[in-house]
Design goal:
alpha/beta, seven-stranded mixed beta sheet, four-stranded mixed beta sheet, 12 helices
Length: about 450
Amino acid sequence: MHWFIETLSKFNRNTAFIYKGNSVGYDELKLLISRCDGWLKNEKITPGAVVLLQGDYAPYTVAMLLALLENKNIIIPVVTQLTEDVRQKIDLTNAAWLIKMSDAKPIFSELDTNNVDSPLIDRLKKNKCPGLILFSSGSTGKSKAMVHDLNKLLETYRNKSEKKLNILIFMGFDHIGGLDTLFRALSIGGTITIATDRSPRNICSLIEKYKVNILPVTPTFLNLLLLDESYKNYDFSSLKIIGFGAEPMPTFLLKKVRTIFPDIELQQKFGTSETNAIRIKNRAPDSLFFKIDDPHAAYKIVDNELWLKSTSQILGYLDASTPALDEEGWFRTGDLVETADDGSIKIVGRIKGVINVGGEKVLPEEVEALLMGMDEISDALVYGEANPLTGQIVVADIIPARQTKVTDIKKCIRTYCKNKLESYKIPVKVFLVDKLDYGKRMKKRRYK
């Protein structure tokens, strides 16, 4: 038995999941894993086979994930139900099986393959290691397929102390942040509250009803939560920690969340799909500066870009034309950082999102954060648009806080930003919109 699954036996008296109003114990989870293992054997899914696992968080889906781990399969967790998206992932990974999960018996489909594995998948098979393939969101370009050695990834969760915490799982089943929450919670015998609806109102309801202790979310969701104001109608007394990550947090939003929830600890989280979660230590409760404090990871800064190296990082991308790591094993995160005198760092933006206005560089996150601090604006998304004279101009999609005209909001923006931003950073075009494109992972699609 794989050590991670064996660890679950220590927590047989604990509740593993709360799902659709029902509690599932660790003893029941072990039975579900055994049942899934039986199905894999009946279907003759052999060790090393590449398996696309289609579903979202649910007891049976997690049990199948762990059964595939035990069977030493290479797993592709997929949430999307779009046939074309699934087909593309199958073609790129040369998956041999598709398993569609439900609350009852899953549906198994054997797929036609060309029997030619990529060198990365072939390496996992030769070493008899389970694998994990994750896809980037594609918000900054073509989606990448990242190949993890699942044994190495799970090593960071070994020998954890038991903690009876109730953690609401928010990030997707196909997202490294969500899987980190899942593996971390299971490794300590914690309870995972599953949200089948990630709207602010439903999240608030689950926190109150099931006494959730930890809520890991994105800054985009926190802003939606504050705008929705559902939290005013629910009891948050059980909530001890709000973890935020996956995208930059605007300083004004951090202060606003801290003001509204003064008794809840706010914890910044950091990591990438390529390296897994990286343990960090914030410089101060109200600061977005942090130090990397992880025995499994190293970092360096090259031309203001953060580079990482971790024991749980990917083997590489399936597309061999795009190397994931340099010759020394360093991963270029694409995150631009600001460094403080004490050596702590702050993520300020993404290299791919930088707007070039006549040779001057503009970080959309910087402009966005300033705009969202205006009383007239509920939310904003800033991006670059091609321009024949300057190369690019700064454009902003705005959700106004109250009914207004675009000419009025544009005038407010110019007045507000005049002494706070260089003139080339102030949006030239402004559009009033009813909603922004947050994407399925509850992050803004910033780069158009």
